């Protein structure tokens, strides 16, 4: 069984992430979407909220599941029996950081390959941070995230989150 990990912060998951996950699900028998806990990044949504939103978003994908992890990504990949890490690349600006991560991960565990999928053109501009920015200014995020995520974003920003 070929298992891949799609790791990230997913604060929140966007249609761009879901596009990469759907495409990875066609390439692998199973895809585990993994949310990093205890990131140095300050997130708007809790780890539990982010995993729940991902589960809503992947509901129609039978070979995809979601969880969270702490520690090194390659260790989590090994624990899950994954042989690949799948990441989306939007632009050249993503490349430096992702390339370094891929090399670093390969150095720690050469059994796990990093595979990059290029973004679909319609998602090139899309990121969790622009979605948060839009939501913070009362914008309509429905084109950029699944409906269930949009509802949660609206509820979260109604509580007065400033980020
Ligand atoms: O969505 P993000 O924030 O770009 O995701 C980054 C993530 C979670 C993939 C990355 O920070 C990660 O894998 N962290 C786990 C710790 C780790 O393994 N670090 C080693 C690589 S430098």
If helices are DSSP runs of H or I spanning 4 or more residues, what is the number of helices? 6
The total strand number stands at 5
Q: What ligands are attached or bound here?
A: 4'-phosphopantetheine
**Assembly classification:** single chain
State Rg.
Answer: 15 Å
Distance between the termini: 41 Å
Poorly predicted regions are none
Content of β-strand: 15-25%
H/E element string? EHEHEHEHEHH
In terms of structural class, how would the helical and strand content be classed? alpha/beta
Describe the model.
This protein is α/β, with parallel strands linked by helices and 163 residues long. The protein has helices spanning 15-27, 47-57, 73-79, 92-108, 128-136, 147-158, and strands spanning 3-8, 30-36, 64-69, 84-89, 113-118. Strands 3-2-1-4-5 form a five-stranded parallel beta sheet, sandwiched between helices. Helix 2 (47-57) links the parallel strand 2 (30-36) and strand 3 (64-69).
